[in-house]
Design brief:
Largest sheet: 3 strands, antiparallel
Strand order of the largest sheet: 1-2-3
Structural class: mainly alpha
Number of helices: 12
Order of helices and strands: HHHHHEEEHHHHHHH
Helix content: 40-55%
Radius of gyration: 24 Å
CATH architecture: Orthogonal Bundle
Length: 233
């Protein structure tokens, strides 16, 4: 409307509501004040029971979700994983920069549990670790969400398992925060720190992911049930 009014001679001067070169000098960026949308996550104390149920659930999508949890990777990184990226002997999965949100290659240390998942799906396709129904295609992004629905987990998301992993790191381990953040392939926001960081903490992350896999494999603890007769006695 302001542009229309200017063209027709009803007003003159710059647009007082323009952002670049005007309001951006006065106000914080919208990204700084916009509410952060969090993905619904499973409490880390419940991951053992969930993994127990998931491992009893057949199908390629179930195995993809299992690997997603064990590696704390993003959905797209897992469903598009190619065998050329994976070295089972070195227990390493090198995700190319083109498929990473940070646009940097990310080496993922594979725990024994993660290796077992990949060995289980090996031989199904020559290119993709988790092939789709169509020829030369990978699993769809929605496939793992459907597994959650079939397991009646309608209040959590696949991406939320990254938060589950991060909460476990913070509350149940002594690993430094930067090791956990690098396991999630988060970029270093501090430019000075980023300039001096050269390594990817691979060995430390390998120990972290092995501990995470062991935690995920812990059998679900039965609830303590006290009978009424015992309590009354």
């Amino acid at each position: 409307m302001l542009s229309w009014a200017t063209v027709h001679g009803y007003r003159s001067g710059d647009n007082p509501a323009r952002w670049r070169g005007h309001l951006d000098k006065l106000l914080p960026r919208p990204s700084k004040v916009a509410p952060v949308k969090h993905h619904s996550a499973l409490p880390y104390t419940e991951v053992g029971l969930f993994m127990q149920q998931l491992r009893e659930h057949p199908g390629i999508a179930s195995r993809a979700l299992e690997l997603t949890i064990l590696t704390a990777a993003r959905t797209s990184e897992v469903v598009k994983a190619e065998w050329s990226e994976i070295d089972l002997d070195l227990k390493t999965w090198a995700i190319p920069a083109a498929r990473m949100k940070s646009r940097r290659e990310h080496r993922v240390p594979l725990s024994d549990a993660a290796i077992a998942v990949l060995q289980d799906v090996q031989g199904r396709d020559t290119r993709y670790a988790f092939p789709g129904h169509k020829r030369n295609s990978h699993l769809s992004n929605a496939a793992m969400l459907q597994v959650l629905r079939r397991l009646r987990q309608t209040d959590i998301t696949v991406h939320g398992f990254r938060s589950t992993f991060r909460d476990w790191c913070a509350e149940s381990t002594n690993y430094p925060s930067n090791v956990a953040e690098m396991a999630l392939a988060h970029t270093v926001r501090d430019k000075t720190e980023a300039a001096y960081r050269r390594g990817d903490l691979f060995e430390k992350r390998a120990r972290l992911m092995a501990d995470w896999a062991r935690y995920c494999s812990q059998p679900a603890k039965p609830a303590d049930v006290v009978s009424i007769r015992e309590r009354s006695g």
